[in-house]
Amino acid sequence: MEELKVIRSQIEGMKAWVKTVDDIEELKRLLKGSIQEVEVALDRLQKRIERMLLRLRKN
């Protein structure tokens, strides 16, 4: 979850400097990368939860 907070703050920072069409295009490119980072973070979180559930079932 901490990773998602960091990504969110990065996105908020990106929005602060958008002033021109070129900035918007750059922001789009950066957001695509951020979305991929979120997907990776969510996959990690899902795997962690799955491992925790398996441990709970064993006990």
Structural overview:
There is one protein chain. The protein has 59 residues and is an all-alpha fold. It has one domain. Helix content is 90%, strand content 0%. The chain has 2 helices and no strands. The chain has helices at 2-16, 21-58. Helix 1 (2-16) runs antiparallel to helix 2 (21-58). The longest helix has 38 residues, at 21-58. The protein starts with a helix and ends with a helix. The mean pLDDT is 83.
Task: Give the arrangement of secondary structure elements.
Elements: H1 2-16, H2 21-58
Helix pairs in contact: 1-2
Strand content: under 5%
Question: What class do helices, strands and sheet pairing give?
Answer: mainly alpha
The count of strands amounts to: 0
**Total individual domains:** 1
Q: Give the mean pLDDT.
A: 83
Note the run of SSEs as H and E.
HH
Q: Strand count, sense and closure of the main sheet?
A: none
The whole-angstrom Rg is 17 Å
Put simply, the count of helices is: 2
- The helix content, as a percent range, equals over 70%
Question: Low-confidence parts lasting 5 or more residues at pLDDT below 50?
Answer: none
Q: What form results from the Cα inertia axes?
A: elongated
- Report, as a whole number of angstroms, the end-to-end distance: 26 Å
Short description:
This protein is mainly α and 59 residues long.
Provide key terms for this protein.
single chain; mainly alpha
